[in-house]
Amino acid sequence: MKMMIKNKRDRAKETKHSSLVVRWVSIVALTITVSFVLFSVVVYQIVSKQSMNQQEETSNNVVVTLERTLSSIPDELEISNVIPSLSPSTRRILNGGPAISSKDTRNNAFSDNLISLISNPDINVAVYNRHNEVVFANGDTTPKFSPFKGNRRVVQVKRNNKTTLVTYQKVYSAVNNKLTGYVVVSNEMTYYNHLMSNLLHWMLIISLIAIIFFVAISYVLVVNVVRPIKTMSKVAKEVNADPNSEARIKPLNRDDELAELASSINQMLDRMQSYIEQQKQFVGDVSHELRTPVAVIEGHLNMLERWGKDDPQILDESIKASLQEADRMKHLIQEMLDLTRAEQIDVQYPYEIATVNEVVRRVVSDLAMVHPDFKIQLDEDDLPDDTEIQMYHGHLEQLLVILIDNGIKYSTDRKQINVSAGVTKKEVSIMVQDFGEGISPEDQKKIFNRFYRVDKARTREKGGNGLGLSIAQKLVDSYKGEISVESVEGQGSQFKMVFPVLSKKRAAELRKIEVEKHKNDVPDGILK
Ligand code: ADP
């Protein structure tokens, strides 16, 4: 059941993954479409408004001119008084023909202004009397009258995708201020309608071309991004299935974040596999190291079981030898623990401060007491008393013990160890020098490796597991320091550790953080 659920989930993930291209392209398409639609609407509105203003002005000119002309008539408007004032073609109108058409403007008596206005083929004019009867009309169609409030009313009439602008105007006599009739001017706005439909047409075409163009470009771009991601995912899956797989992402031939990611993933895989390898090696080494003491103890116990327990001397020797091996195992286990812990220092001791002189002095005097046959000299003249480094003091002690202990272990005739410390602007250095057997240049490269001993049998005699210097190396690395060795075979060795010096300002900050951290600690007494 669990498997089924898992499979389903995996499948769901894969579908999602494959839709990445579709999703990105749709988002681009949608964004472009929305932007173009918005842009088009705004442009369309602006052009329409501008152009409509012009048309309204044209209609307005006609209306104002007609109204001014007709306002000179004192009585209600009728054919007999309107025609003479606007046109001499009275007879034709009385015969039922069209009042006037743009064709015969040359023969009428219109003022120049009126002629030019009404000769516009878009403009149709009609004059109505107070009883809504047409008394004059010009143009091919007569604009209809409909009652309205106020002096003027402007209406846009839409028919067959064409807009006509109709203006209704009341006419008052200038003589007695009485309402004499109405003027209706309709403007067919051919230019406006043509412009707007053309604009819409072109906008649609350009938007369509732009959408197709951008979708194609974004498709190419997205596929270009998704392809390397797919390769990475394939490699990740392969390594997931077989952690030892040699699969790596091929160089992407590009210079961007994806290439960086690919190379980081490759590095990560290399490192991960080398860790796995190291881990295997470590487990192998550890079992190998433990096998000897276990075999020795087992041998002694077998011997005791078979015949040795009755011989007090053998019994005593075997118990002593077994205890010694047990002690060695305990020591080895402790060292292995130290080695593991040395890798997690930045998490466990992030804000600790060690005062170098204090620690060095303490360790030197302690070891001098343990090894009275050795002359352990301390030279710290070049180190001001308050020199501090960012390190847990216990680790500095451990480092010094490892190095001084080695100096003692691998000494020959001259039983002397020199410990010295100094500081420059940026670095604190601590040196441990001995005059013992020394280390060959070949071995100098290997002594920091786990379980490496120059002379296995002899070192074992001296109680060494080959872990001391690897613990030292790990500790120093964790504190961003460096450890190195200079040695001449038969003359002695000098180990040097260098750490970044801790500035007074940073030390104050660390102390503050430490205080803040402990503020929230619950005192033991309260809980008890
Ligand atoms: P061990 O616990 O065996 O001393 P280390 O890791 O401390 O392990 O040292 C690794 C090897 O390096 C030692 O076995 C020894 O052969 C060599 N070595 C370390 N320190 C010194 C020294 N001061 N003089 C000579 N040889 C040394």
From TrEMBL:
UniProt keyword list: Kinase, Membrane, Phosphoprotein, Transferase, Transmembrane, Transmembrane helix, Two-component regulatory system
InterPro entries: ArlS_N, HAMP_dom, HATPase_C_sf, HATPase_dom, His_kinase_dom, HisK_dim/P_dom, HisK_dim/P_sf, Sig_transdc_His_kin-like_C
Organism listed in the record: Lactobacillus kitasatonis
Reaction catalysis annotation: ATP + protein L-histidine = ADP + protein N-phospho-L-histidine
Protein name (record): Signal transduction histidine-protein kinase ArlS
Transmembrane domains' residue ranges: 21-47, 199-226
EC code: 2.7.13.3
Location of the protein in the cell: Membrane
Highest taxon in the source lineage: Bacteria
Biological classification of the source: Bacteria, Bacillati, Bacillota, Bacilli, Lactobacillales
EC supergroup of this enzyme: transferase
Domain (HAMP) ranges: 223-277
Occurrences of domain Histidine kinase (ranges): 285-503
